[in-house]
Amino acid sequence: MDSIDSIVLRTLCKWRQENRNAALVTVVRTWGSSPRPVGSLMAMRDDGAVVGSVSGGCIEDDIIDRYKELPKHAKPEALKYGIDADEAHRFGLPCGGTMELIIEFNPEPQQLAQIVDLTGTGKLVRKKLDLENGQVSLADAGVPEKLMYTPSVMKQVFGPSYRMLIIGAGQLSEYLATMAIFNGFQVSVCDPRSEYNQLWSTEGAPLLTEMPDDAVEAFKPDSRTCIVALTHDPKLDDLALLSALHTNAFYVGAIGSRRNAAARRQRMIEYLDQSDETMDKLRGPVGIFIGSKTPSEIAVSVMAEIIAVKNGISLPKPYDVAHEKNRLGDQA
Known about the structure:
It contains 12 helices and 15 strands. It has 332 residues and is α/β, with parallel strands linked by helices. The chain has 2 domains: 155 residues, no CATH class; 167 residues, Rossmann fold. The strands form 3 sheets. A 6-stranded parallel β-sheet has the order 12-11-10-13-14-15, with helices on both faces. Helix 5 crosses helix 11. The longest helix is centred in the last third of the chain and has 16 residues. The protein is elongated and about 70 Å long. It starts with a helix and ends with a helix.
């Protein structure tokens, strides 16, 4: 499953290749509370069809109403919503929220196809839009960048801003990989076991078959990388974790019960010369406590924790799996 940005761009590309008038709407600035972050995308077609979102509903309706007849040739336009409390209330924006949008009419289908093709292979593409004349240029981007906007130019990098390496190609990994891709992560899965890797078929998540520690080293984890070990096999998980804990990955976690997590910690300290400080970086049991039992529910739990860490959110004790299971007297 594609991320929402990919869906918007791919759909818009298809519309333009069919020679339909269409527009791309981008959130470029927000003040106060806003329902969608800077960089959010929406595309609309000449018959009112819409994909994506820039607010959550009310603003989209007003934009569609304003542009019932999309101009064939026009410079990009800027729109502001929520200038005062009355307008914010009218459009359903949170109190004090203000948003500024750029509307780009009839983007070139060839350039859209180029963005879709490159980002589909995990590459980053920087788009520069001249707001004076509507001209667009594309270039490779080495690293993710925040959207840059001035009255004369908008620059935006498309492609995965975060990466995930999953150790293990089991059913749980299928669910987690799918959710991560939908949330804009570039996902790779490592499993050298033939009984698992021969059946891996999750689209958009390439399979690596080398040993996990080699895969981690080759992945070159940075501060926008998360690594999750899901095999339940210490010979594989511990190798990956041993390498991952000494990188800048923002999240390193491993599946397993509280007992297994404690045993792993002791094992890696006693036999693999890891320090208590290093092991404190390891999250396990992974996920937030939602009473999950099935692979799909566990994947939701793990993905929620990863997103919370990515967004700098400190989760309270009731969301900690080990804390809540101890409180409830759960023996698992």
